Backbone:
């Protein structure tokens, strides 16, 4: 039998249902939080498509280590920013090593590689930050001169705006590593995303849940996005079923704000959108890393204009702060001291 005839016969059998579909490959980082989010995605896919994806082995997790996971002694602002958590997953997706990438949306740059799309987001978790400390019951009660571990210039700027005597030091690694360092007394306190703690059933670790008026969360915080190749009809069909439209619209508004500001990890930017009665409510800010200047914006409008609202808010902040402010930010080398 000739090889091309064997191939044709195999294709005919497969089309008739005689061959099983290959496993659906989910690409994910290997941190405990990333794995929790990947398993959540897997379980949702299994429940939505029990006949196709419910069997053991129908979904395969492909775990990857990114540059952002490996370089922990420097702040993200020093080593290239958010793309460090997605580049390896992008390469695997374009190389057909995975079918779907599971992302924490606040780690995803506002641009996507050509031939990929991010059309689906799971229902968002609580977006607030939490304060964790064995020495104080709230951020405002920390004694002057206390040391806070955080890899986020956004958090640093808002913390120092409230109390410039506090010291922020680079504090990276997974949640468990940061909590261990806190227990060892490396720092006096830290701030983490409440969503991550909740997804790992660790919300009891929070000392205080911080409201938006005190610390405005990061753009897209608490949201999980699903990315695939733009011509992969099988994956597109699966992840479309998981899309939570309210989350998708709110995050689209926030990411439009970030894109308008050309935001990166050298620029302290925060932005959050909520949806109520067909209206979208947006709050955003941009600041100097030391908290000495903060520009805030609020916008409200119809949900259909979510992206426009985010973009307009970004343009307003740019006008309020002035071009010199952003030129100054980009010229800086913002560095956080390293927690030992």
Residues:
């Amino acid at each position: 039998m000739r090889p091309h005839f064997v191939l044709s016969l195999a294709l005919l059998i497969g089309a008739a249902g005689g061959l099983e579909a290959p496993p659906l490959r989910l690409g994910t980082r290997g941190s405990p939080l990333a794995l929790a989010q990947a398993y959540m995605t897997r379980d949702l896919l299994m429940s939505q498509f029990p006949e196709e994806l419910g069997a053991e082995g129908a979904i395969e997790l492909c775990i990857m280590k990114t540059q952002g996971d490996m370089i922990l002694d420097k702040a993200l602002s020093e080593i290239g920013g958010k793309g460090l958590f997605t580049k390896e997953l992008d390469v695997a997706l374009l190389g057909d090593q995975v079918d779907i990438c599971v992302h924490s949306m606040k780690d995803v740059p506002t641009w996507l590689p050509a031939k990929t799309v991010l059309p689906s987001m799971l229902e968002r978790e609580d977006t607030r930050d939490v304060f964790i400390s064995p020495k104080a019951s709230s951020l405002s009660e920390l004694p002057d001169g206390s040391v806070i571990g955080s890899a986020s210039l956004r958090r640093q700027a808002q913390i120092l705006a409230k109390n410039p005597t506090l010291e922020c030091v680079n504090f990276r690694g997974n949640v468990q590593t940061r909590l261990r360092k806190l227990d060892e007394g490396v720092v006096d306190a830290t701030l983490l995303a409440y969503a991550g703690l909740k997804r790992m059933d660790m919300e009891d670790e929070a000392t205080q849940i911080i409201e938006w008026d005190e610390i405005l969360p990061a753009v897209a915080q608490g949201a999980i996005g699903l990315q695939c190749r733009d011509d992969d009809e099988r994956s597109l069909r699966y992840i479309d079923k998981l899309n939570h439209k309210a989350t998708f619209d709110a995050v689209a508004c926030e990411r439009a704000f970030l894109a308008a500001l050309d935001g990166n990890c050298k620029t302290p930017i925060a932005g959050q959108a909520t949806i109520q009665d067909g209206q979208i409510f947006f709050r955003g800010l941009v600041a100097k890393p030391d908290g000495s200047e903060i520009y805030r914006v609020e916008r409200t409008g119809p949900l259909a204009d979510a992206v426009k609202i985010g973009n307009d808010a970004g343009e307003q902040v740019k006008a309020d702060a002035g071009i010199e402010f952003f030129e100054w930010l980009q010229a800086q080398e913002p560095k956080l001291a390293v927690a030992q």
Residues 32-48 form the longest helix (17 residues). Residues 1-18, 68-80 have pLDDT under 50 and may be disordered. The chain has 13 helices and 14 strands. Residues 218 and 270 are 5 Å apart (CA to CA).
